[in-house]
Write a structure and sequence with these properties.
Layout: E1 11-16, E2 19-25, H1 34-42, E3 50-55, H2 67-73, E4 78-83, H3 93-100, E5 104-107, H4 111-117, H5 119-127, E6 131-139, E7 143-145, H6 157-168, E8 172-176, H7 177-183, E9 199-203, H8 214-217, E10 224-228, H9 234-242, E11 246-249, E12 252-253, E13 256-257, H10 259-268, E14 273-276, H11 280-288, E15 294-300, E16 309-310, E17 326-334, E18 337-344
């Protein structure tokens, strides 16, 4: 995850005589796909084996040959698929190719787990937008900074390391312009021994961010994309482009950049998974537009009071029935903090 967009992160395991003879996963940049990687490792042992794949093998000729053809050529006896592909170029055709070749096909095994891992790819394919995780790190009373703006650090080092691992599993890390100005973040993965970095996205209507910030200074080395409004200053647009940033013009929703337009722009660029780290105004706009698929919270054992900066800006909720709701998935202690994972509560 985080390495193969715009393609899905797929896994494949080949088993023969109760022994794993090949493993493969989608390689960086999206190719080779999982199946040919696993088949290459299995070699001649793939003949008569069972291939387990998290997503239906592709059936179309793109930059690589169809994976269904590769499985047929390798003479596997059985293919077990978790979920079917919703891409119109595949959507059942890969399974049909396998069955027509006399291969036994089973589908729906661990489908819910695979669908959760692949949700970003499906959302991009079906709705044109990526999967969005909103991360909030706050005090017990939901504050992300003191009244004077001091915010580093509310949570402990263990929680921050966990966040770096989560950044690594997403295609892009996103913040609002206010957070970029106040915190001067790098938004990179550090301390985990990896060289790959996610795309760094800033949502800033007017691009009014310091040109000597960490993001600006490193834009030529690590991608920085700025989603801006139609009224951004032309000189700033040119300046940010010259220092290496990619610009994503978006429509406005009231006084702010439309969160729907931002996610659609990211989807058009091939992004499948976005990790949003605030601030409060961006978090509120995403929640208000019902775009948050996963809500991740870190709660620290401190209280900052009403004068502190809230983790989420104004939502305009007047009735409880109108409040965004989520379903608790997990909760665990991370260092001195508590991490909870919530998923969108689907209507019954």
């Amino acid at each position: 995850m985080g390495r193969c967009w715009p393609n899905p992160a797929v896994g494949c395991v080949i088993v023969k005589d109760e022994r794993i003879v090949g493993r493969g996963w989608t390689q960086p940049g999206g190719r080779p796909h999982a199946e040919p990687v696993a088949l290459a490792q299995a070699g001649a042992a793939a003949a008569g084996a069972t291939a387990y794949v998290t997503l239906e093998p592709c059936a179309h000729h793109g930059q690589t040959p169809p994976c269904a053809e590769a499985l047929i050529a390798a003479k596997v006896a059985r293919v077990v698929v978790a979920v079917e592909d919703s891409d119109a170029r595949v959507s059942g055709r890969g399974l049909a190719m396998l069955r027509d070749a006399g291969i036994d096909v089973t589908t729906g095994v661990l489908a819910d787990e695979a669908a959760r891992d692949l949700q970003g790819f499906f959302l991009k394919t079906d709705l044109g937008r990526p999967f969005l995780t909103l991360k909030l790190a706050s005090s017990l009373d939901g504050r992300i900074a003191t009244a004077t703006g001091e915010s580093q650090w509310i949570t402990g080092p263990e929680a921050r390391r966990e966040v770096h691992a989560m950044r690594m599993r997403h295609d892009a890390v996103m913040v609002g312009g206010g957070t970029a100005r106040a915190d001067d973040p790098s938004l990179t993965v550090r301390g985990l021994g990896v060289a790959h970095q996610p795309v760094r996205v800033v949502v800033s209507r007017r691009l009014d961010m310091p040109l000597m910030s960490n993001l600006a200074r490193t834009a030529k080395d690590i991608p920085v994309w700025v989603a801006h409004g139609p009224d951004a200053d032309s000189t700033l647009l040119r300046t940010w482009r010259d220092i290496g940033a990619e610009l994503l013009p978006c429509n406005l929703d009231g006084a702010h950049v439309s969160p729907v337009a931002v996610l659609n722009a990211l989807g058009q660029k091939g992004i499948t998974r976005v990790f949003c780290e605030g601030g409060g105004a961006l978090a509120a706009s995403l929640l208000g537009a019902d775009l948050v698929d996963e809500l991740l919270t870190f709660s620290a054992g401190m209280v900052l009071g009403a004068e502190g900066h809230p983790a989420i800006g104004a939502l305009g909720v007047e009735r409880l029935s109108a409040a965004p709701r989520f379903e608790l998935q997990s909760q665990r202690v991370v260092g001195a903090d508590v991490m909870t994972v919530w998923h969108r509560l689907e209507p019954h």
